[in-house]
Amino acid sequence: MRVVVWGINYAPEFTGIAPHSVALCEFLEREGHDVEMVTTFPYYPTWQKRPEDRGRLYRTDVINGVPVHRCWHFVPARVSALKRIFHEASFVLTSTLRALFLAQPDVFVVVSPPLLLGAAAWFVGKLKRAPDAFHVQDMQPDAAVGLGMLKQSWFTRLLYALEAFAYRHAARVSGITRGMLKTFRNKGVPASKLIYFPNAIELKNDEPPPARGEFRQRHGFPAHEFLAIYAGNLGVKQGLEVLLETAARLRHQPIRFLICGDGAQRETLAARAREMQLPNFNLLPLQAGRDYRALLVDADLCFITQQAGAGNSFFPSKLLGLLAESKPVVTVAARMRVGAFPGRRKFRSQRAAGPAGGARGAARFAEERSRAALDLRRQRPALCRAVREAARPAGLRRRIEILFNKRCAAERSGARKCAG
Hints:
Layout: E1 2-6, H1 18-30, E2 34-40, E3 58-63, E4 66-71, H2 81-100, E5 107-112, H3 117-128, E6 132-136, H4 140-146, H5 154-169, E7 172-175, H6 178-186, E8 194-196, H7 214-219, E9 226-233, H8 241-249, E10 255-262, H9 266-276, E11 281-284, H10 289-298, E12 301-306, H11 318-324, E13 329-333, H12 358-379, H13 381-390, H14 397-411
Parallel strand pairs: 1-2, 1-5, 2-4, 5-6, 6-7, 7-8, 9-10, 9-12, 10-11, 12-13
Antiparallel strand pairs: 3-4
């Protein structure tokens, strides 16, 4: 079968949507299908093109047997709602022209966002007589409105009309969580069209992990400090200010908060951290490859944060990688339930009451979890190490994470959640 996958992110980007598009294309290629990728020049999450890619209109690379057709698009130095619209629209325009000159496929697999790709795929599909499967990684209109990035207006009505158009004309509509599929049904998409197509992660056990303490030594973090981290995109929907508030509450504890990443909110977070004069907080660039694994080896606790209002609009793919590395994870969402990510029941053994009272409530919640995890490491270090070591075989990792969550919850108060 001949398949054209069409989306804005691909390798060598190593975070966000790109790894999942890579996994799909390379799987199809290994299965003997004729697969091609239509995408951009890499830019995410730094929002900068590489010097060798600047000024290029089109180029075709071959990555692990997959032809990758790259198309020029506008990348703003500072991201805003209006600039993001031009950013996505420019890709839709140049990639549509590129797709028109490809050989006729049996199917287009369209990865959204950008939302406008749905209309583009319908147009190209009509000319080439090829259906499209519309795969949703992030429900853009719902997220933008829920996060307050866009207010209800003629423009949001246009976005919802484009969304409905894409769903109506696609041969299949897929989502990465059960919550997304429920939202699709509520939007009027027939159940016969829907496909549950969750993201996955490759468990690589052939490479030995970095030595414990390697990351701390490189960056000058003492071995006795409890290291609580966030690693990934620094955007609006992550709501990372809550970690700064938590660090302020725990400034006199031996707990270091570390944010590693790039994105639209990096400068805002850096300025806020300087203003708060936090002695227990550091902001580092995004860590990749072995550096990222070294970070996880030394981390005692990992945070995933979500801004209030995002609802079922997306699923944080970084959660999969953290659990695959057997790391304890605390999810925090202001004015929402803990673990309020669609599909969370796959990773949580029980539901818990979450933070209330907006950002302050979320900060208090994060503070409690950080203290609980620190207490656990102090009181039961041997148990923590034993569980981490036992969890290394790929087949046991996620199950041990769930069982240890239950044990910690039973041993401590019902309001505290621990893992390790």
